[in-house]
Amino acid sequence: MTDFRATAPDASGPEVPGSPTPAPAPPGPAPSSAAAGYDVAAMRAQYRAEGIAETDFPADPVEQFGAWFAAAAAEAADPAGVIREPNAMVVSTADAQGRPGSRTVLLKGYDARGFVFYTNYESRKARDIDANPHVSLLFPWHPMARQVIVAGTAERIGRDETVRYFRGRPHGSQLGAWASAQSSVIASRDELDAAYAELAARYPEGEQVPAPPNWGGYRITPRTVEFWQGRTNRLHDRLVYTRPDAAAPWTLQRLSP
Ligand SMILES: Cc1cc2nc3c(=O)[nH]c(=O)nc-3n(C[C@H](O)[C@H](O)[C@H](O)COP(=O)(O)O)c2cc1C
Q1: Where in the sequence is the domain holding 46, given as residue range(s)?
Q2: With 0-12 CB in 10 A as exposed, 13-18 as middle and 19+ as buried, what is 90?
Q3: CATH number, domain at 207?
Q4: Could you report the average pLDDT of every consecutive run of 10 residues in the chain (257 residues)?
Q5: Is any ligand 1 atom within 6 A of the Cβ of residue 92?
Q6: 107 C-alpha vs ligand 1 centroid, how far in Å?
Q7: pTM for this one?
């Protein structure tokens, strides 16, 4: 298996996670990061992973995503592997005024149509998507010196697909989806626990829990998919697939790091 780990320090600084020795104090008040004993500015990894070549990449980015996802999942399955939760991705949205928001969600499916995650349809992210369907997904496979960034448009999936997925969730997660009015302010933790306890009494383990009407999946139809591979001396590889619309063929180009 490829050794994805960061290796020897580069010429300009120490290996991650950075020297625990505080840097010489500059004049003026110490930044809080230095005060905590870590020099954040000096933290950097040197990557030695192999490069990626246009000629090795297939015509379809979803196929390439599948290959990298399989590698991340294999790391996660290996007790000595460097990845946890390979399907965790950062979804960025923007509201009608263009104000951005990001949060982690779990990828629950991908195919030629796009990338699927599940959430509450009244959450902040859902309100953003209602106003502006343009989103970005970022897979932060840093320990493998890799990241994938998908940009595209989000659409609610069909109710049947949501219900099928919901039925396969653990009982506790099913109740949790009902108990949480995601992104809304609550008075206390007790309020949430009480809502859950009430639902648990109504739907004991083994009883079918219906999918909440305000909960379901989004599918992101990709317009660009960028594959980033860390290389030495910050000369990273970036290969990006783009297409003007979902019916058009993909173009693959290299971006300067
Ligand atoms: C590893 C991880 C996985 C998560 N998976 C999901 C998910 O699949 N769906 C979801 O709605 N929230 C998920 N969350 C919680 C979100 O990050 C976020 O707190 C929540 O969706 C509310 O976001 P919003 O207020 O911006 O809409 C996850 C958080 C973490 C750290």
Answers
A1: 6-10+42-255
A2: middle
A3: 2.30.110.10
A4: 48 36 53 74 82 96 98 96 97 98 98 98 98 98 97 98 98 97 97 97 96 98 98 95 96 98
A5: no
A6: 11
A7: 0.89
